[in-house]
Specification:
single chain; 327 residues; alpha/beta; 9-stranded parallel β-sheet; binds iron/sulfur cluster
């Protein structure tokens, strides 16, 4: 389990911090080189994310509008989706180009019973569509992880959110150790790990570096690392935080890419605030996945129309497409 006074952890955090502080063009070049040595640079996975149970969460995550602690948010609590509806939405997401379907429930932890059985049915249904299935359900026990694996789950998302030293300024209802324990159970069951965090919550560069050092300390590295930019939601304790600029995201993605060369790094929440050019820089830095669709759980995402323009801009130029050159 993590020891933040451990020499190896400190060395990795120092390296991560040095990378985060590197001049942008040098960092970008190094990350792009690493990315191209380990991935097809044209491969940008589209994942779709659905909230299957929204709001009323007993946890107190300061950034999250779904927490029952943040009463001023006024989020409409929604009931649990039924599996057939979820599987139908997954099918539609696949038709729209998604390869991975992620399902999130605003729970503190997984409980045995009808809702967990319904989750297993959803996972089986998504798996049968030949899509990667991912869930985020809070903390779980080893037998839950084994059942999810048996149902065909590809990945379990459980974010660290931030570095260990800053963590208790953001979450008071569960510990860093709780998070690491859940990740341990996930990996022990043979499910891949999707684990990342959020920048822009008031943390220092050192906190960002330490979060990346924890992730890079997993052996093997997490298969998937989502990097989110805070969306300051009115009514949450972080509502007054300014939005980060895209270069901070580029630096974070580039550093994650260098530290974890084979991981799929996901450009996640906050993308709606970035221009198409900002997002292209993120891909250059090593991001190779986006969430596709107008909403990310309860937060706005880049609209589908702008994503079509993004992929159009990234694709090869055919004769049929105008280059803006005079004829
Ligand atoms: S981030 Fe997850 S665990 Fe935290 S309050 Fe929101 S739904 Fe609950």
């Amino acid at each position: 389990m993590l020891d933040i006074s451990d020499q190896k952890f400190l060395e990795t955090a120092d390296r991560a911090e040095a990378l985060l502080r590197t001049s942008l063009l040098t960092l970008l070049h190094k990350a792009a080189e690493t990315h191209r040595n380990h991935h097809d640079p044209e491969d940008i996975q589209r994942a779709s994310l659905l909230s299957i149970k929204t709001g009323g969460c007993p946890e107190d995550c300061a950034y999250c509008p779904q927490s029952a602690h943040h009463k001023e948010v006024g989020l409409q609590k929604e009931h649990f989706f039924d599996p057939d509806t979820v599987i139908d939405l997954a099918r539609k997401a696949k038709q729209a180009g998604a390869e991975r379907f992620c399902m999130g429930a605003a729970w503190r932890k997984v409980r045995d019973g009808a809702e967990f059985d319904a989750i297993l049915k959803m996972v089986r249904g998504v798996h049968a569509l030949d899509m990667e299935a991912c869930v985020t359900l809070g903390m779980l026990q080893p037998h839950h992880a084994r059942a999810l694996k048996q149902a065909g789950l590809t990945a379990y998302n459980h974010n660290l959110d931030t570095g260990p030293a800053f963590y208790n300024k953001i979450i008071g209802t569960r510990t860093y150790r709780d998070r690491l324990e859940t990740l341990h159970h996930v990996r022990a069951a043979g499910i891949t790990i999707c684990c990342g965090g959020i920048i822009g919550m008031g943390e220092t560069l050192r906190d960002r570096a330490e979060m990346l050092a924890v992730l890079a300390g997993f052996d093997p590295h997490p298969e998937s690392v989502p990097i989110n930019a805070l969306i300051p939601v009115p009514g949450t304790p972080l509502s007054n935080r300014p939005r980060i600029n895209a270069f901070e995201m580029v630096r974070m993605i580039a550093t994650a890419r260098i530290l974890m060369p084979k991981t799929r790094v996901r450009l996640s929440a906050g993308r709606d605030g970035f221009s198409l050019s900002d997002q292209v820089l993120c891909f250059m830095a090593g991001a190779n996945s986006i969430f596709y669709g107008d909403e990310l759980l309860t937060a706005p995402n880049a609209p589908l129309s702008s994503d079509s323009a993004l992929f159009e801009a990234l694709s090869a130029v055919s004769d049929a497409r105008s280059t803006g050159q005079p004829e």
